[in-house]
Amino acid sequence: MSRVILVVVIILALLLAIFGAQNYQRVDITFTNMTIHAVPLYAVMLVSVLVGILLATIIGARSRISGRLQRRKLEKQIADLNQQLAKSPAALVTDVPDKTVPIDTSSRQQQQQR
């Protein structure tokens, strides 16, 4: 999997380099009331790509951190349950409530008699 990612990154870097070589003209950038004059177009693209990478890294890190926290919580819960099981294996079985539904057998018996 890491080789696939490396190949994709290299291809994207080459495409960005080709784009930069072909788009060297200067452009004006306006953001709200601020204007920056004569910025090379490849620099605008490079900054855009870097901002995208930064945002993707932040979002990815957030999900990895929450996944790790949840995994630790579940591992602690498993360890606690294993300790309970080691202390008294029968306690876990007897603590389970009986949720069986009684079956009405009288109607079956009546149908069989007919």
Any descriptors?
114 residues; mainly alpha; two-stranded antiparallel ribbon; 4 helices; 72% helix
Explain this structure to me?
There is one protein chain. Helix 1 packs antiparallel against helix 2. The protein is about 70% helix and about 10% strand. The chain has one domain (about 15-95). It is mainly α and about 110 residues long. The chain has a two-stranded antiparallel ribbon with strand order 1-2. The radius of gyration is 32 Å and the shape is elongated. It starts with a helix and ends with a helix. Strand 1 (about 25-30) and strand 2 (about 35-40) form a beta hairpin. The protein has helices at about 1-20, 40-85, 90-95, 105-114, and strands at about 25-30, 35-40.
Protein topology:
Elements: H1 2-22, E1 26-31, E2 34-40, H2 41-87, H3 89-94, H4 106-113
Antiparallel strand pairs: 1-2
Helix pairs in contact: 1-2
Q: What percent of residues adopt helix (DSSP H or I)?
A: over 70%
Whole-number mean pLDDT = 82
Major sheet: 2 strands, antiparallel
Q: How many H/I helices?
A: 4
Q: Structural class of the secondary structure composition?
A: mainly alpha
Total tally of structural domains: 1
Q: Spans with pLDDT under 50 lasting ≥5 residues?
A: none
Distance between the termini: 68 Å
Along the chain, the helix and strand elements come as: HEEHHH
Per DSSP, what share of the residues sits in E-state strands of 2 or more residues? 5-15%
Q: Please tally the β strands and state the result.
A: 2
Shape: elongated
From the alpha carbons, calculate the radius of gyration and give it in angstroms: 32 Å
Biggest sheet strand line-up: 1-2
